[in-house]
Amino acid sequence: MIGRCLAGTLLGFPLAGFLLALLLQWLPDHGEPWLIPVLILFFPLWTGLMIGAYFFRNGARAWLALGAANALAWAALWLSRHAAGA
Amino acid sequence: MKSSTLRTFQTVHTWTGLVAGFALFVAFYAGALSVFHDDIALWQNPPWRAAGADVSLDTLARRMVEAHPQARDDFGLVLAPRGTTQAPYAYWVQDGEARFATAAAIAAPSTGDPARGSLADFVYALHYSLGIPTVGLYLMGVVSLLYGLALVSGLIIHLPQLLGDLFALRAGRNLKRLWQDAHNAIGVLSLPFHLIFAVTGAILCLSTLALAALNPLAFDGKLSEAYARATTTAPARPAGGAAAPMLPPETLVERARAAALRTGVSSFEPDYIHYMHYGDRNAVVEVRGLSQRTLGTFGTVALDGADGTVLSVHVGARQDANGIVNSSMYALHFGSFGGRAVQWLYGLLGLAGAFLFYSGNLLWIESRRRRRHAEQPRRVRAMARATVGVCVGSCLGISAAFVATLLAGALGADPALPQQWACYGGFALACLYAGLRPVPRATPELLLATALLTALAALLDLARNAGVWLQPWSHATAAVFAVDLAGLALAAGFAGLARASWRRARHGEPNHVWALAAEG
């Protein structure tokens, strides 16, 4: 219980940030005209991830899955920034 | 859904509700009152009780730059709610700290609460921070997050029987069933309203912290500038160096209003004036105001400070997506988008929300009660005491603050300290009373005390303004009269609750923490 709670809270925070950063990255003009509407999604997204973490069977799985999702989202963000720069 | 998952969410719902419920009760009760912020400000300082010299905005701006010339490049004037005799004040940042001063106290600005003594702002501060400076705001942000979790987990638990039970209100012998039905019905039917507050509450309290953390983490350090670009509406104009006389703020406000109305909104009530490079030929003055008949209720008009030319209009549909969303977020939270009808709707839904958290605690008690014993478990008694002390105590404290403000005003004293003492003192006494006295007696007695204090504030004010009710009525007369009537209605509500809890104590099921028989 507490493992899933911590996984959702601690890993949900950066994951929500990475996902929104990706969305802005892929929108035209890096999403500047829609920055505020996208940022408003942050807290609902984080809450959704915190709730989502409880659907895993135990804390270890939640940490593993959310950790992997963080790594993937970060990698995608890094790639799309550098692809755009090239 | 698996039953183990449902049980997990039951636990999440119970814990988030327990941790955040008390703070949410205060936030919703004080918030329901804060919807009528400007009316409460009028109630305290109606125009017929003019206090002190009436200082024009122009005098305030002149004295401001005279006393603090270093702030002339960037300062603001905060306007008082329309019709009140409350003084407008200047706002600027010096040495990284916010400063506030009225025209009368311009040489000695305060760094603390700019609206000290204003009852409406006191209740509003209780709403967003429980009255605790700085930390309280973040605390309420965390509470908003827990509130979001409680809403979603509650919805998930309730999902299997959602439609079947939605309109069921089984009033029978089983009181727990009735409380459960009422809790679910209010929770589900006002869910859109609650989702708005969970989201906007978290944003209003925590967005600064979240942006600061996310900026280096996910946005390569580019978020702050992008955010500033998305929210800044005033045209950037460097100071020209040549001095020029400024048009009075009153003139600029009128021009701003005219420019705003040309965009098709039905009104523009200015509440803030932002000065950049006061006294310079390139001075820019941005007037912010509240409009109706638009999605983006808060809008700004930027003008040339020297000749009054309109430089940019970000009002109503003339705002971009960022501006509209930013502005509608405030409108949705404050209920400022639909005149009186929406204000009353928000006020009633706010009270219903307070009831939601109160009934949540009652349900916790009901489901842990021992049916066959007079003696109830220790944690059930503790929860009953805490619920009565905190919930009824905060209503009592707020009503006491109304009485204290009125008495201080009548005696010509500064209302700031009496307000705080009455509110926090009343709250602490109520908690103490609920902690020591048997619960079935403390509950009706505290409710009755709250009813009496609430009625006292309304009746004293009705009597004090007796002469005014006989004169021709203005907008302000109606607003103040309505505050008194609403006070009497609330008092009647508290008295009704006192009567109901007293009846239950005497005639309700005996094996219960609320029953008088349980005392033995």
UniProtKB/TrEMBL annotation, chain A:
Protein's name according to its UniProt entry: Uncharacterized protein
Higher taxonomy: Bacteria, Pseudomonadati, Pseudomonadota, Gammaproteobacteria, Lysobacterales
Keyword Membrane: yes
Keywords of the record: Membrane, Transmembrane, Transmembrane helix
Transmembrane segments: 7-28, 34-56, 63-80
Organism: Fulvimonas soli
UniProtKB/TrEMBL annotation, chain B:
Keyword RNA-binding recorded: no
Domain of life: Bacteria
Residues spanning the membrane: 12-36, 137-164, 185-214, 344-365, 386-411, 417-434, 446-463, 475-497
Pfam families, per the entry: PepSY_TM (PF03929)
Residues forming coiled coils: none
Keywords: Membrane, Transmembrane, Transmembrane helix
Protein name: Putative iron-regulated membrane protein
Natural source organism: Fulvimonas soli
